[in-house]
Design goal:
This protein has 1 helix and 19 strands. The chain is mainly beta.
């Protein structure tokens, strides 16, 4: 049986060794590295098949769970799940499956002896529960390790947020952007979903005049922390609105959204650009643009009139002299 690795997003300090006992954590939510993380070998057998750990997690942190069998010639069906603090209308907490399958070493190559998964969070809380269940008919020593892998996307950014989505909920972000600049949209799914479920994302950007620019259209989010990125350029300076919608068949999908300023496109618009028209009116005069051919016609008429006048005067002078 293959291991199905799934991953998520939640938040900070993990208290260890106090199994099924809420740790004393008050002021440690600001820095997960200050806490003691789980890194211990636990015993499983037919009568001892589950361990529960109370976790304190922080939004935008990224964590890892690693499991490894430390005794040979055994099989164990494991499930790792994270229970969130949120409660829905039916009084049920969000449940995220991190890993599910068989670990073992009876037949080499048949089943893996270790697995790892990542998770993060859309809400800071000290009320998360990590439950690791192991169904086995043997005595098994299993190494369980929780790691703090740092902040999700710690590069330079204008906006960064992890939030929960469902079919009835979209998210809008507002930010002042400059004109003639390139910006990057970064989207990643941060929670686990089983194979038969799906999640697609749509992202649109609206400028200050409410012009819509579709950035991502029904993009599939197959892999946890498998990012989708797209670059867009701005024409107008002002407040922009970024709208995110998710199409999914599960209750909750957590998404990491990041807005990044990239580089300049141009030097900016001209100051007070003038649009020419015909005719053009200025403040003190009206100017008409006359075709060149008309100038030639008028000139020919004037020249003809001058010649006729000169000829007439010449005849008149001749008659007078006679």
């Amino acid at each position: 049986m293959n291991i199905s690795f799934l991953q998520i997003v939640f938040c900070n300090n993990v208290s260890l060794n106090n199994i099924s006992e809420k740790p004393h954590i008050s002021d440690k939510l600001e820095n997960s590295s200050a806490g003691q993380f789980i890194d211990h070998v636990f015993f499983f057998n037919p009568s001892h098949q589950e361990y529960q750990f109370n976790l304190s997690l922080i939004k935008n942190e990224r964590y890892g769970v690693k499991l490894a069998i430390k005794t040979p010639n055994v099989l164990i069906d494991i499930q790792t799940k994270l229970i969130g603090p949120d409660v829905d209308e039916d009084g049920q907490n969000d449940v995220f499956i991190l890993a599910e399958g068989t670990l073992g070493s009876i037949e080499e190559g048949e089943d893996p002896i270790s697995c790892s998964s990542s998770f993060g969070c859309a809400l800071s809380s000290d009320e998360y529960k990590l439950i690791i269940s192991g169904n086995t008919a043997q005595n098994v020593n299993l190494h369980i390790k929780i790691t703090d892998d740092g902040i999700s996307y710690s590069n330079d950014f204008l906006l960064r947020d992890v939030n929960a989505y469902d079919l009835s909920k979209s998210r809008e972000y507002y930010h002042d952007l400059e004109d003639d600049k390139n910006y990057e949209i970064y989207i990643a799914r941060t929670n686990s979903i089983v194979i038969e479920n799906y999640a697609y994302v749509d992202v649109s950007v609206f400028d200050k005049d409410n012009h819509e620019f579709p950035i991502l259209q029904h993009e599939p989010l197959f892999v946890v922390y498998g990012e989708k990125t797209e670059i867009f350029g701005t024409s107008l300076k002002g407040q922009y609105r970024i709208e995110i919608n998710v199409d999914t068949n599960i209750d909750t999908v957590n998404l990491l959204f990041v807005l990044i300023k990239k580089d300049n496109i141009g030097d900016g618009p001209e100051e007070n650009p003038q649009q020419e028209s015909n005719p053009t009116e200025t403040e003190n005069e009206i100017t008409f643009n006359v075709p060149y051919a008309l100038y030639l016609g008028v000139g020919a008429i004037i020249l003809g009139a001058v010649i006729v006048t000169m000829v007439t005067l010449s005849k008149t002078k001749t008659q007078v002299m006679r």
